[in-house]
Structures are given as C-alpha cells and as structure tokens.
Design a protein that fits this description.
Length: 600
C-alpha cells in the first residue's frame, strides 16, 4: 500500500503540534525562562577573578571551570564565545589568562596551554606582549569597552611577563568621569559604551594604581576621585552582585578591585557571590543569567500570532499577563538612570530597562488582554517611555537617548521595527495617544528609510551571524523590518518603496532549498529560516517563496524533531550566544502566521 503524500498545509499542522509540545515542555510555572549557551569567555573571566579574590575559598569552582575549558578547546587551540563558535583571539586570550592559576593549584594543563599559545602566536604574530596588545587594540579601534579589560586581565595574570612598564601600553580609562551626574555622561564622549560604567570605574582604577604618573596633573585628580568612583560603583551594583546579570562584566570588576587594594570592599564580596552562584554544574558560566522576560514575550507573541489559536487558555493568559505587568519598572533605575515605564530582559535585579524588551512586553500585554480588561495605564507608561527614548534621527536605541558615539549606543533598525509593532498593536485602544504614536512612527519610518542599505537590507544591532562577511545578520534585521512595515497601516507616509526593496532582498537571499542564513548564499539556520519565512508570509505577495521557506524549515528541523539553536545572538561587546528557545519561538510565529493566512 502506497502512503499518500501529505500536502504542505497538513505537514505544517503536524509540525505545529510538535512545536507546541516542545514549547510547553520548556514552560516554568507561569512563564518561560529559556537557557543561554555556556561561554568560554564567561567561564575564563569568572574563575580567574575568583582566583584573584580568594583562591582558597573558591578552589572547587576554579578547578571545575578549568576542567570545562580543557574539555571544550577547539582543535586549533582556540576558544569561541559558544561551543559552536569558531575561535577568536579575544576569548582565547582570556582563557590563556585563566590557565595562569593552573600551576598554583597543582594541575598539569601544559598540553592545553601549549595549544592556546600556539593559536595566539599564529593570530598575533608572536607571543610578544606588544604584538598581542597591538592586535587587540587594532581590532576594537576607538571602543575600549572590551579591549582594555582583556589586556588588563592578561597583565594581571602575568601573561605579559613581570615588567611593570607594560601597563603603559594599556589605555587609561577615565574613571574619574564617573563622579559626574549621569545626565552629563552622553556629553563626555566616553570611549566605552553606556552600559559599561562598572568596567570604566574598576578597570580604570586598577590601571591607575599600577601605572600612576606623578608628572601628569590628572594623576592628582584621579587620586582624589577613587573613593567617589567606588561609591558610585557600589550605588549601581544590584543586590545580587551581578552587574547587568553578566558574568564577564562582574568578573572584570572583581579582578580589578582585587588587584587595586580594594579586595575587602563590599562590591567585591557581592561580585564573588554572584559568580559562584552563576556557575553551572559542569563548571561553565553563561554570558548572562537568563533572558526570562524577553523569552516569555517572544513565546507569548508567537503563540498568539494567530488570533484564532487557543494554545493559551484564559488562566494561562491571566498568569502571563500578571507576570509581565510585574516586570514593568516603576522607579528610576539606579544603573542607567532610566525613567520608570520600561521593561528589562529579566526579572533579576541586574537587568535594566531597554527598548526591545519594552516593545515585546507591550505587544504581549495587548494580545493577552480581553476587551474591557486592557492594562491601559501600564501601556501608556511603556509607550511614553519608548517615545522619550527616540533619537533625533528618528530611530530607537537600546538603553539611552542620545549617546550615539559608539555602535551599541546608536539607533538600530530591528529595535525600531519592534517599537513600530508595539505602537500599531495599541493604537486603537488608546485614542488619546494615537496622534503622538503616529508622529513617532513617521520619524521611525524616516529613520528606516535613511539606514536601509543600497541592496535593500537592514543590519541589526544585537544579532549577527558568524558565517557571513563582516559577521552581520542581514536576514534577521531585514525580516524584522519587513514584518513591522507590513503591519503598519499608516497611509500618510509612503514606505512602499523601502518595503518592496526589503522583500526583494529576502527573496534574493533565500537559498535554493528554501532556507535562509544570515546573508546571501550563507549556511542556513532554523532561526533565520523561520524569520525569513515569517516576513514573506506577512507580505502576502510571495506565496511560492513563503511555501519554499516553510518547506525549508520542515527540512532543517527534520519535521519538528530537531531544534538546534545557532549562535546568532550578540551580547554586550559583541559576544556571541545562542538561546534554546529561539528556534522554537521563531518557528512557531512563522507557523501560526502561515496557517492564519491559509484560513486555519
């Protein structure tokens, strides 16, 4: 008997049921927490900083971390940001520094260390300190957010030898500027991004302590500013000790304080506690604790993409809504000085309000609410918060209005598109704010017009692809903008041309088998294929290509059996991560929209 071949719609419906099963298996009580990939960089910085703080007290954690690093070295002696990432000089240097404590612990890790040194020598030209320093500084350019902490770590570890004059090669971060009121930061032209204030302070102080120049008049100013800067650092540290819930940032602060005469400071004690609690059973540390709120909004929005779907009953919607409403910040945030009204990526105290999470939460709250039970006051609060963040170029930045000097402080297309979607979601429920939202959207559309690349694509900020030229993820950025523009009903602004160019780029970037990678002719991922498919379904003008995309998604997941996450996420300082929930939620959103358009 010959088995009749299923139609694509029937295959998608079967795929949908497998997705639902996987998504709800990941649910934790009333929400989704997700799981970030383990990070060699976080592990290295975490255990090295603990060794500088109190090696005897944290010997178990340090050894466990070293064991994980030994097991996860690449064949060429390098380390990448995730175990699925190609090696890079930055992460490998930090791991090299971590292994400096090996001998003191009575370990024999020389085989691993030799492989690491062979890779570094090849990449930098030699193991000479000047060669390595030149390599790192040239790679990061004017942005000292990450280059100076890397070089400081290697110096403290003794990787550059015992010659103290090597500190002269490491740029001095102007920690004394941290004592200025935060409202002046955007005017100070800092060479670190807005979120890196703890590193600016701690790394700046340790460099000053090791290479103070009495001939420099700034030396006396800096000397007098140390205690004030430490007070500032303490004032912005969350109660659990983790700055931004990020192990690397917290580790950099701990190692700096431990080597500048401030080991007994309360900030150092709390940093060490956070790092110990962040370590996983296998010895590794993630790049951040988790993206609980962000993953929950992505999941809720995927499950409600089709307004006919009944995956969430009224009790589940009520619980999700209650969870999200509890995440809205009601006070000025001590870290970024953000006004109340925004949402962060996690309920944990180290997370800070940002535009992407606020937009996602607003969309979810609208979709989870019944008419007559809308959280109008909270929505207005969040919408006004987003409008206040809008830059003069019309785009939406991540955290802070108007900083703009360095890339991670600038407006970005994907977040701007997300905010448009949030405003469109709420425009008919808040008539008194509709005109203001439309004015803001028009500015956003102008921004998107101005930053569209000549080929029709948009480049996102917080997502990339390690296998494309320049490691950009044009599929993610373009798909997000195309989805938003297809939802935007404004008729008094002509964006048809940029929308068509964006859709044309997606069609040209689609692989022969229907899949997408991060750019034209790049290896496919589940996440990128789901987003590309979703975008073309949203358009409604390219059914053949949308069907091919859905078929490609079925192939990549083996019909809903395999959901391997890819390192497409970019964290602070361009560190890569993958998130367990991304392939599930992006696939679900595409499936729901596909079946909605098919009349299901």
């Amino acid at each position: 008997m010959i088995k009749e071949k299923l139609s694509l719609k029937e295959e998608v419906k079967g795929f949908q049921l497998k997705l639902i099963s996987r998504i709800f298996a990941e649910k934790k009580e009333d929400s989704w927490q997700g799981e970030l990939s383990s990070s060699a960089l976080s592990t290295a910085v975490g255990i090295f900083s603990l060794s500088q703080f109190d090696q005897d007290q944290y010997v178990v954690e340090i050894k466990s971390g070293l064991n994980w690093l030994v097991k996860n070295i690449n064949e060429d002696g390098s380390y990448g940001d995730t175990v699925a990432s190609p090696g890079n000089i930055s992460t490998t240097l930090l791991v090299w520094a971590a292994f400096s404590v090996s001998t003191k612990l009575g370990r024999d890790d020389q085989k691993t260390i030799s492989k690491i040194e062979s890779y570094i020598s090849k990449e930098a030209g030699s193991l000479e300190p000047d060669k390595i320093i030149d390599k790192v500084l040239s790679f990061y350019g004017d942005d000292h957010t990450f280059s100076v902490p890397i070089l400081t770590t290697c110096t403290l570890a003794g990787c550059f030898g015992e010659d103290k004059s090597i500190w002269k090669r490491i740029p001095q971060l102007p920690f004394e500027l941290s004592v200025f009121p935060s409202k002046f930061f955007k005017n100070l032209k800092l060479d670190v991004v807005s979120y890196a204030l703890p590193a600016l302070i701690a790394i700046g102080i340790v460099r000053f302590k090791h290479r103070r120049s009495f001939l420099n008049p700034l030396s006396y100013i800096r000397s007098g500013a140390v205690n004030k800067a430490l007070n500032k650092l303490q004032s912005i540290q969350p109660e659990n000790g983790g700055f931004l819930e990020a192990s690397p940032l917290t580790g950099f602060v701990l190692m700096a304080l431990s080597n500048s005469g401030h080991k007994s400071h309360v900030v150092a004690e709390k940093c060490a506690s956070f790092l110990k609690n962040s370590q996983r059973q296998d010895g590794s540390l993630p790049i951040d604790t988790h993206l609980h709120t962000w993953v929950t909004t992505l999941t809720a929005n995927a499950l409600t993409e089709n307004d006919k779907a009944t995956w969430l009953d009224k009790y589940s919607k009520r619980d999700l809504k209650k969870f999200l409403l509890a995440q809205q910040h009601k006070e000025i945030h001590p870290y970024t000085n953000a006004e109340p009204g925004g949402f962060a990526w996690s309920p944990l105290p180290g997370a800070v309000p940002d535009a992407d999470d606020t937009a996602g939460a607003l969309v979810a709250l609208r979709r989870l609410s019944e008419k007559g039970h809308m959280p109008i006051a909270e929505a207005i609060f969040g919408i006004r918060w987003l409008i206040s963040l809008q830059n003069s170029d019309g785009g939406i930045p991540t955290f802070c209005h108007g900083w703009g000097k360095l890339p991670f402080d600038k407006s970005c297309p994907d977040i701007t598109a997300h905010v448009i979607r949030a405003f469109i979601e709420w425009e008919n429920d808040i008539p008194g704010l509709k005109a203001e939202m439309h004015t803001s959207i028009k500015k956003m559309l102008t921004y998107l017009t101005n930053v569209q690349r000549s080929d029709g694509s948009w480049q996102p900020l917080w997502f990339g692809n390690q296998q494309t030229e320049g490691q950009v993820n044009l599929t993610y950025g373009t798909a997000q903008v195309v989805i938003a523009l297809n939802e935007c009903g404004l008729t008094d602004f002509d964006f048809a041309d940029i929308l068509k160019k964006g859709e044309s780029w997606l069609i040209g970037a689609q692989n022969v088998d229907g899949t997408w990678g991060g750019a034209v002719k790049s290896p496919a991922s589940i996440e990128e294929t789901a987003l590309g498919t979703n975008a073309l379904i949203s358009s409604g003008h390219y059914p053949e290509q949308a069907d091919k995309g859905m078929q490609g998604l079925l192939t990549l997941t083996e019909g809903g059996v395999k959901f391997t996450s890819s390192p497409i996420g970019l964290y602070f300082a361009s560190l890569w991560y993958d998130e367990k929930m991304y392939p599930l939620v992006y696939s679900m959103a595409a499936v729901e929209k596909y079946l909605l358009k098919s009349g299901e």
